[in-house]
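Structure tokens please, single chain.
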Amino acid sequence: MELEIGKLYRNRTLKYLVPALNFYGPTLKTKFGLIQWLAVGVHDKLIDGSYLEGQQNLFILVDKFVRPDSYQNFIDWIAYQPFFVTTYQVQEERFTMLVIAFPYQLADAFDKFKQGKYSKMYSEEEIRNFFGEKPEARKVLKRYNEAKYEFTVLVKKTYGTDLVEEDFKKEVFEYDLPPVPKEEIFNY
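Here you go.
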């Protein structure tokens, strides 16, 4: 992950997993809006060998120097929430890693994400509830033709390969590339 202070790093974790945090209710979403996120991932190599390894958590890198009072209020609030796992300092004093448990009721979605099986992650109702404001993700999750076209453009740009309609008859493709570890895992 190449991070920039003040800019949210856009990856597939942000696109496909973070909206599932709506499962925890609107208060979390409102409170998240008060702090400065830099990136989100599914793991941090720094915690390899710890009790956190192998759990289904989201790792959220936060800049605590942006709106410090809001940051502290958020930390004071989230520490008492059942989905809170831990926080820890990262490299510089200004960054905190916030670890939140992915909803265990959606554990299969987390596994399917790691396999790149986006269209198998959520039920119709979950897509409606979690992705109402995220049309880009919905197109992939529901396998819309528009996403199929965008996927063929992405494959051409990334690999220099043209996919044609016949390719989609031979193999079932998801309409986005699988997660790339260096983009979804901190300190990879």
